[in-house]
Amino acid sequence: MSANLAALLYLVAGVLFILALRGLSSPETARRGNYLGMAGMAVAVGTTLLVMELDGFGLALIGGAVVIGGAIGAVIARRIPMTAMPQLVAGFHSLVGLCAVLVAAAYLYEPHAFHAGPAVEGVRYSFGTASLIELSIGAAIGAITFSGSVIAFMKLQGLMRSAPIVFKGQHWLNLAIGVAIAVFVIFLTASGGQALTAFWIICFLSLILGVLLIVPIGGADMPVVVSMLNSYSGWAAAALGFTLENTALLITGALVGSSGAILSYIMCKGMNRSFVSVILGGFGADGGEAAAGADIDRTVKQGSSDDAAFIMKNAGKVIIVPGYGMAVAQAQHALKELGELLKAEGVDVSYAIHPVAGRMPGHMNVLLAEANVPYDEVFELEDINSEFSTADVAFVIGANDVTNPAAEDDPSSPIYGMPVLQVWKAKTVMFVKRSLGSGYAGIENPLFFRDNTLMLLGDAKKMTESIVKGMD
Hints:
- The protein contains 18 helices and 6 strands.
- By secondary structure, the chain is an alpha/beta fold.
- It comes from Marinicauda pacifica.
- The transhydrogenation between NADH and NADP is coupled to respiration and ATP hydrolysis and functions as a proton pump across the membrane.
């Protein structure tokens, strides 16, 4: 295949990737966006195979790897529940980071496989300074992404404590490792790529740094961490795209890196958190519960499903606020049925989504779309927050931290200043939750003890189904 044709096909793949991201910006076009992204990847991979001009054995080897990997991915995707999607994404990010490290190593050890011209026995390939810097940065970011994603996966999966793990001198240690990595990058570059030991030291130190960067970050910040690691994986790919002179890798990496960074910024804004403070960790540390729960009446009004059915059936406007509790219980279909029954009774029904509800961006939107909830009934925080004061009922189903009034009322709370859904302004708040325990951030919610709050304790799906039966 000619270089011009390959460049054109890579450009087509890049355009498809951009259109895919555009499609993923809305639930209505997300499916089309996924298809466009798949088409773009098929074009990019196919073009690369044609450019490489592989023999039959090479094609069989790569084809076999694609089939095996695709089969494993398909099985995982079909079996994984939506509640485990964040850790799945973190796990896949780790593979992207590992891939960046392995590709960089392959380039160092067998550069002739990436460039035209015969290898000369006993003579090492002469690397350019820029290529070595790009390669080192790509490998370092890839290693950080790999180990950091593994830690994020373990925290999200419950294999290790989600609370911040901090120790004295942690930031200074991170700084020292960062400086050491920079020194070995300079050493590798100065050696013209001959000091292979320096490359592996860079990778080893980066793996350690990835762990140290993520362990001090609390569970409440994990959605931002997943998005951040997504961005890291993109920048690692982009750096290697420069080194390998591969347009598709460069475009794809830049798109993933920039979109991940933008998403991280949006999420930090939604949590009233600076990106630097997330990296430094500490959110959700001990002490938040006492601050959020201070000076409040401890009386709780507990209701039944029949109480909830009667109140909502006679309401004029109900705003439903889904959260992670709904996802765990897989209550979205029962919630859709409840919404349809309320609309049949003439009740105005809408859904309020917080930017960081659940464990990753769009988590609630996907679940509601799975239950065929109309898109025009689903609203983001900034579009619906002013509506709670006109609502008869705010039906909160598992959304704890994003409805916590301490974010506005308690300056001592760790979440003070975070934009939250102002459900307490509704005439009645119905809160479906298994218990009165704190949310994922480890902070008590004083909303439970307000006069206009009715706690519906129990499994979200069973409670919702019981309310549906009570409305018949």
